[in-house]
Amino acid sequence: MVHSWWWGKDGGYRFLINGCKIGYRYQQRCSLVNIKFKWVKDSVLDAVVAGGRELKAACILVSIICSDHRCCLPVYHLSSRRGQLGLPHDLKISTFTRRYPTMFEEFYENDSGGTRVPWFRVTPEALNLHKEELLVFQQYQNDLLNRLRKLLMLTKNRTLPLQTIDQLKWDLGLPYNYLNSLIRHHPEHFSLVSLPDGRAGLRLLSWDDNLAISHLEKSSDFQTQEGVRNENLAFPVAFTRGFGLKRKCMKWLEEWQRLPYTSPYCDSSHLDPRTDVSEKRNVGVFHELLHLTLQKKTERRNVSNLRKALFLPQKFTKVFERHPGIFYISKKSDTQTVVLREAYERQKLIQKHPLVDIREKYVSLMKEGVLKRSTGMYKKKRDEYLDQMRNVCGDDFVDNRYTSEGESDHNPLSEYDSDEAPQNS
């Protein structure tokens, strides 16, 4: 008996048994099976996630500072952007930047009221990395452009709020100022629109069939059987060592993998959301979304507001728990990060984008700064500089470039001990 699936012109799957069309009956009979998997810690993928929040915040701060024509900004200006950084609320921006002296230099300037205010600029090493990053953005502009186009093609109306895109732009590899550096240069693809709820949105103006092919479809290459497309595509699955998959769960998973695969770029309105076939479509959406990201991972909260846009059911993120062989939920850094298992060979990203190489260089620079602070090398270097200046200028020399280690959180001799803008009387 020959069982085959193919995509119909009306957007639905057709099922053949010995050449006879069955239509959608098979789909509607596959009810959603109540299978639960336990969460098992994966220390290898936890290591992939560790430090990601700090890296993102540091890189965004570099972009913000470099966007100023003087390449330096007061701490209260940086503090006003803290919502973009994803740092803990109890961590001051000044404290964070002082952790990485190889990336940020601190100095003081008086404001209009005469109060000494800490300012920050990037180090020459960080500036060189930023310039290298801008060059990669330019060289891979079409790739980044297509990632954004494919993201919008996943949505029901090819439209997303800018707020949602902003939450994903770091993962997608978009430049910090992507609206000016990317979107405005491609009016043939994008349009800024006002959404019904009053928010600003981005709309994709045209559909591209060449982009409407998922990563799973490309990797499977639509293997054919007796001249008919095989679209019962299975997802790559791997479990954490010691997972201990029960026989009942294994049998369900094998049957679930043999269900028809609905492309995330196709209309799925005909699917009953109470079926495993529909759930496989939902898994396919997130599988594709994670493949659009540079490092095949994103925070769970970044996709929590995509339900309506991606035509997903209530509690749609439960698919992450139900399919631990496809996704891993890391709980590092006081958040939940969804990682695509197949994208990693232990801690190594299998397909590495050039922007990931740049980020790894940032990580090395940050680690160097932490090491220098912990060993006192940074303080020694700064003290040598101060001694040289005092020898030249005498006892009247007053340093207004560097703050002492003791000023990181509180110094009674400092006139400014806040990340907020000073209140002048």
TrEMBL record:
Pfam families per record: PORR
Region spans: Disordered: 398-425
Organism expressing this protein natively: Daucus carota subsp. sativus
Domain PORR: 40-369
Compositional bias ranges of the Acidic residues kind: 416-425
InterPro entries tied to this protein: PORR_domain (IPR021099), PORR_fam (IPR045040)
MF (Gene Ontology): RNA binding
Signal peptide interval: none
Protein name: PORR domain-containing protein
Ranges of Basic and acidic residues composition bias in the record: 398-412
Phylogenetic placement of the source organism: Eukaryota, Viridiplantae, Streptophyta, Embryophyta, Tracheophyta
